[in-house]
Amino acid sequence: MARDARRTALDAPLRGGGRRTRAPQPSRDRFGRFTEWIARNMGTPWFLLGLSLFCILWLGWNTMAPVAWRFDSSDNGFTALTLVLSLQASYAAPLILLAQNRQDDRDRVTIEQDRQRAERNLADTEYLAREIVALRMAVSDMAEDALTRDGLRQELKLLLEDLQEDAGPEAAAEREERRERAERREKAERADRSARDR
């Protein structure tokens, strides 16, 4: 019977909506922000002015007030004031160090992100450089292909002219001369292109 009750309890939704709330945990970030606020404010002229004013009021009260109202004796060298300032300094130093550690952590993360960004930029630049080289090679190949097409066109024109002319011995010599001129022209164009590519 107890087992059946446990099974139905597992199969059935929990009462109260099934939500279990946990007690709120104090945020570590909140304390870190507090330490940074302390460190930021301790480095301002207003803090120094306030601390100086506090010390002046303390010393003034304990020297000029009636003896019954004084709480820190000047005979003992203002021991209570010394203790208060020592307590303030002993808490200020670790708070400032905590704030510096947080700043160092932020700087480390920023440096890592900058390094990753620089690596990505370098990889992108190398990729683009390879693509530009490939495009240049493709364009030069297309230019060479255009030369061969032009050469073929000239040859076809020469053949067409040859067919239209008489097939006598003078025509053959003229055809041969035209071919040689076309070949010389094509070689000169190739030499010019190769000189420009270099």
Q: Main traits of this protein?
A:
198 residues; mainly alpha
In words, what does this structure look like?
There is one protein chain. This protein is mainly α and 198 residues long. It has one domain (27-197). It is built from 5 helices and no strands. The protein has helices at residues 2-11, 28-42, 45-64, 79-164, 169-197. The longest helix has 86 residues, at 79-164. It starts with a helix and ends with a helix. The relative contact order is 0.04. The model has no long low-confidence stretch (mean pLDDT 80).
How many domains would you count in the coordinates?
A: 1
Q: Report strand %.
A: under 5%
Instruction: Give the end-to-end Cα distance, rounded to a whole number of Å.
Output: 94 Å
Low-pLDDT runs: none
Radius of gyration from the alpha-carbon trace, in angstroms: 47 Å
Number of strands: 0
Largest sheet: none
Structural class: mainly alpha
The helix count comes to: 5
Element string (H = helix, E = strand):
HHHHH
Output mean pLDDT: 80
* Cα shape: rod-shaped
DSSP helix fraction: over 70%
Quick description:
The protein is mostly helical and 198 residues long. Helix content is 81%, strand content 0%.
Q: Secondary structure elements and their pairing?
A:
Blueprint: H1 2-11, H2 28-42, H3 45-64, H4 79-164, H5 169-197
Helix pairs in contact: 2-4, 4-5
